[in-house]
């Protein structure tokens, strides 16, 4: 959750009538908003701006950074890019998947070697504050 004021939960967003910007209807982020609001028993209709939509994590962060919203749901990397605070409400796991037969090909071996390498972790994982498991083959 990217924030511009002292907001620590979805309940704070609703109670303080903070200006919110949502993601469009399709991404998982929108589902996360529904899930977090539902768990807190917050009716999304009570969230000021829940119908305001942007299409990317960077767009919702830019919206908040510009002062057009106080809060949004998004990824930490986008919040940091725009100098916003970030409160971790959820953690998601992402997996690199492919057909098993492709694992044995030379191009795929090169990709896996890159993803296991120090440069990948320093250049991709660390700046985005991602936890990249290096050795999870198979």
Helix content: 40-55%
Rounded mean pLDDT score: 83
Number of domains: 2
Q: Reading side by side through the largest sheet, how are the strands ordered?
A: 3-2-4-1-5
Number of strands: 5
Radius of gyration: 18 Å
SSE run: EHEHEHEHEHHH
CATH topology of the largest domain: D-Maltodextrin-Binding Protein, domain 2
Q: Describe the sheet with the most strands.
A: 5 strands, mixed
Residue fraction in strands: 5-15%
Kindly name the structural category.
Answer: alpha/beta
- Under CATH at level 1, the class of the largest domain stands as Alpha Beta
* Separate helix tally: 7
Distance N terminus to C terminus?
A: 33 Å
**Global geometry:** elongated
CATH homologous superfamily classification of the largest domain: Periplasmic binding protein-like II
Regions with little confidence, pLDDT below 50 for 5+ residues: none
Give your account of this protein's structure:
Helices cover 41% and strands 9% of the residues. The protein is of the alpha/beta class and 138 residues long. It has two domains: 2-86, Periplasmic binding protein-like II (D-Maltodextrin-Binding Protein, domain 2); 93-138, no CATH class. A five-stranded mixed sheet has the order 3-2-4-1-5. The radius of gyration is 18 Å and the shape is elongated.
Summarize the structure.
By secondary structure, this protein is of the alpha/beta class. It has helices spanning 10-15, 28-39, 57-65, 76-81, 100-103, 106-116, 118-125, and strands spanning 2-3, 20-23, 53-54, 71-72, 85-86. It has a five-stranded mixed β-sheet.
